[in-house]
TrEMBL record:
Record protein name field: Undecaprenyl-diphosphatase
Enzyme Commission identifier(s): 3.6.1.27
PANTHER family associated with the record: UNDECAPRENYL-DIPHOSPHATASE
Protein localization: Cell membrane
A single GO cellular-component term on record: plasma membrane
Transmembrane segments: 90-110, 117-137, 189-210, 222-240, 252-272
Misc. remarks from the entry: Bacitracin is thought to be involved in the inhibition of peptidoglycan synthesis by sequestering undecaprenyl diphosphate, thereby reducing the pool of lipid carrier available.
Reaction catalyzed: di-trans,octa-cis-undecaprenyl diphosphate + H2O = di-trans,octa-cis-undecaprenyl phosphate + phosphate + H(+)
GO terms, biological process: cell wall organization; peptidoglycan biosynthetic process; regulation of cell shape; response to antibiotic
Family: Belongs to the UppP family.
């Protein structure tokens, strides 16, 4: 392992950290970056490793929300509390569980096929799809709050996330599009999308521990992996904060333009320059 290789992997960590929270597909960016920089990383173990780093950052950002939900859920289930906060967070937790089921099942069924033989051109097409989805909801202003979510809403958001199993389709983008489409405000849609990320990411990490441990590159690139992990945690934290600000100001259009631009570039690269 040389310093150039280490820098490349750290760059991939930075790329993952910046693009995981924002609706532009982190997995798609990793496919493009590995192609452009010639980094050999077959399968999904490296992506999942970095995805776990992003999870830690998101857990930290939303730690107060998570603690509050857990406390209210405990009070509802074991202390018989039926105040507004306890009931709302109980319903909200049920909605999170329901929205997680479709993508969890799809991920298990397609685990051996996701991410294999994905080309830069294919990612480009999927980025255009992501951009189109964001375009349709960029100006939508819902008024639903956490307690207004229904089972139907949760199923719709869950199905939207299934599409994001394909590199180039943003998971956060799909969850945000689905959440805003069912009437959540942009702020609440963002919160729902990131809280949904937690069980999905935890589940993905657990079922992929073997793949990560048995990664043939881990023994020789462990330092590069570790540094990439640290960079991802830090970058994800600041990217989440940035996205929160963007959503509060209703500036989703910048991600529409970005997805279109990178999508067109990726397609041209595949068919003209590659």
């Amino acid at each position: 392992m040389d310093i150039i290789t280490t820098i490349k992997y750290m760059f991939l960590g930075l790329l993952q950290g910046v693009t995981e929270p924002i609706p532009v597909s982190s997995s798609g960016h990793l496919v493009i970056a590995r192609e452009l920089f010639g980094i050999e990383a077959k399968g999904l173990s490296f992506e999942i490793f970095l995805n776990t780093a992003s999870l830690l950052a998101i857990l930290f950002v939303y730690r107060n929300d998570i603690i509050s939900i857990v406390q209210n859920l405990w009070r509802f289930l074991f202390n018989g509390a039926r105040d507004n906060e306890a009931v709302t967070d109980f319903k909200y937790t049920i909605c999170l569980i329901i929205a997680t089921i479709p993508v969890g099942v799809a991920g298990l069924l397609l685990k051996d096929f996701i991410g294999e033989n994905i080309t830069v051109g294919f990612v480009g097409v999927m980025l255009l799809v992501t951009g189109i989805g964001l375009w349709f909801i960029k100006n939508k202003r819902g008024n639903k709050r956490d307690g207004d979510l229904t089972v139907k809403d949760s199923i719709i958001v869950g199905l939207a996330q299934c599409v994001a199993l394909t590199p180039g389709i943003s998971r956060s983008g799909a969850a945000i599009v689905g959440s805003i489409a069912v009437g959540l405000s942009q702020k609440n849609a963002l919160r729902f999308a990131f809280l949904l990320y937690i069980p999905i990411s935890v589940g993905t990490a657990l079922i992929s521990v073997g793949d990560i441990v048995n990664d043939p590159q881990m023994s020789t690139l462990w330092l590069a992996y570790l540094l990439a992990f640290i960079v991802t945690v830090i970058a994800t934290y600041f990217a989440v904060k940035w996205l929160q600000n963007i959503m509060e100001n209703g500036n989703l259009i910048i991600f529409v333009y970005y997805c279109f631009a990178l999508g067109v570039f990726s397609i041209l690269y595949q068919f003209i320059w590659a």
